[in-house]
Amino acid sequence: MSSNLFRFAYFGLPLGALALARAGFVPRVIVLGHTDAPGARRVQRQLGQDTLVLPKPELSDPDVVRSLADVRPEALLCWFYPKQIPAAVLRLAPRGAFGAHPSLLPRWRGPDPYFWAIYSGDRETGVSLHRLDEEYDTGAVIAQETLTIDPRENAWRLAKRLDRPALSLLVRCAEALAAGAALLGTAQDESGATPAPAPDDTLLSIDWTRPVAEIVRLVRAAAPYPGASTEFGDELVELLDAHPYPASLPRVLEPRDAVWTPEGLVVRAGDGGVVVNRLRDVDGRVWCGGELADLFPDGLARVGFEPANRPER
User: Which helix (H) or strand (E) holds 286?
Assistant: First the structure.
């Protein structure tokens, strides 16, 4: 079956539709979940003449379902559609619906697998091509690619690194379907399933009695948004970048106590110190370097300095 005869519907971010089109697979209908996402205008301009583009439709609307049915899609391909696709829509595709999820299913099912992979200390993650069922991320797995997590990267950087293999799996899915493959996949092992919900405010609030490694993972997992939150002085702030302090701290310091060191601002945690590199205040301003000391109007004790040295501004 040639690619131009393969009839399919695409749901998700514009970049996925564009990647498929570049590979020779032009969707008969594109359902955008975010009308302001990068590539939305390009989709309308490049594909809108030959493809029905539905910007953020209500999929429970019978008129929308009829419009999708009129296209007669053989399959449905999905990449980051923000809502559950109703069963009535999934049934429109006789050869099935397929999505690329940024985790090694069944681990980290849900909307925020990046956060949980980093926060939990996973050494690797990846992407999974799977069949779409009526429940999120539960369908049979077609293929997976594994990626090592860099211990220095945050959730945003991890997400960007996973985009390329995810789109590659989506294109390979289209190629296989166009060639006539059934792509039944392998059922997920429910005993290995873990949820990946969006972290709540309690989890995002830093508990300075916890170990340094756990706090640094939380900062990485929550950066750049929503950020791991704490209070410095009178300011509620969100930490964006941090790393373990390599030296010992005075025993008199209690968890949450802050000092200035040759590496910058260090906060006492349960078993050592956390160096704060960057943070964001409630007004959205990002602070870094010597200006972090300004968050403490009563001043900071200095550790590891000769008496004449001062924090650099």
Answer: strand 286-288
310 in any annotated domain: no
* Closest C-alpha among 71, 61, 113, 116 to residue 92: 71
If phi > 0 it is left, if psi is from -120 to 50 it is alpha, else beta; for residue 90 that is: alpha
pLDDT given for residue 102 in this prediction: 98
Whether residue 147 is contained in a domain is answered as: yes
Domain containing residue 170: CATH number:
3.40.50.170
Distances (CA, A) of 170 to 61, 177, 298, 313: 27, 11, 55, 49
| Shared domain check, 153 and 265 | no
Q: In total, how many domains does the chain have?
A: 2
Distance CA(252)–CA(249), nearest Å, equals 8
Please say if the pLDDT value at position 308 is more than 50.
Answer: no
Range of the domain at 141: 3-192
d(CA 300, CA 313) in angstroms, rounded, equals: 14
Residue among 191, 198, 251, 244 nearest 221 (CA): 198
Long-range contacts, 33-36 (Cβ 8 Å, 24+): 33/80, 33/81, 33/82, 33/83, 34/82
pLDDT at residue 34 above 50? yes
- Asked if residue 313 is part of any domain, the answer here is no
What contacts 256, CB < 8 A, 6 or more positions away?
208, 230, 267, 268
